[in-house]
Amino acid sequence: FGIVVGDELWNAAGDALVRIAADGTVIDIREGADIGPLATAFGSVWAGGVDGSLQKLDSASGEVVNRFEIPGVAVGDLIEGPASLWIMDRASNSVVSVIPGSGQVVNRVELGDRPRSMTIVGDSLWVSTFESTLSELDAVTGELRRTVAMRGAPGFLFTLGERLGVSLFRSSQIALIDVSQPLVELPGGTI
Length: 191
Prior knowledge:
Order of helices and strands: EEEEEEEEEEEEEEEEEEEEE
Strand content: over 45%
Shape: globular
Number of strands: 21
Oligomer: single chain
Structural class: mainly beta
Distance between the termini: 28 Å
Helix content: under 10%
């Protein structure tokens, strides 16, 4: 769970938040942080609490400056959308969008299986699942645009320019997909 904040690496490791300078010097270790996934979004640093909360952190100290309870959500990855913060909810096999200033859930989209990874490409939120599917959602409304079966299990998703990058789980293969074009359906799934 590491991210870059300014010229520092922040890593949520167990129950500690570790901040490391660009030269490798440890700046701070905050024990008892009890946070998991980290993200930068809307000019702030965000963390998923191990208790299921969404926490806004001070970008200079790493201290919690605001905390939002999101009932029934087991926070997975976090990513900035055009108007909300998207959260993978591993407990309900869905993704939820939350207004950062209030913690209010705006959308909940059921995926049918546990989400594995997500990224934003253009105006779309892409989500991979442990069931070897890849779903495209409208990043503002949460409307499901399409779901495709993958030939291999999609692992980590990333954005490269205007293309969707998919690392295939337990493989050294990476697929770069021009999502402005129709996805190619092959026997046994896409890609």
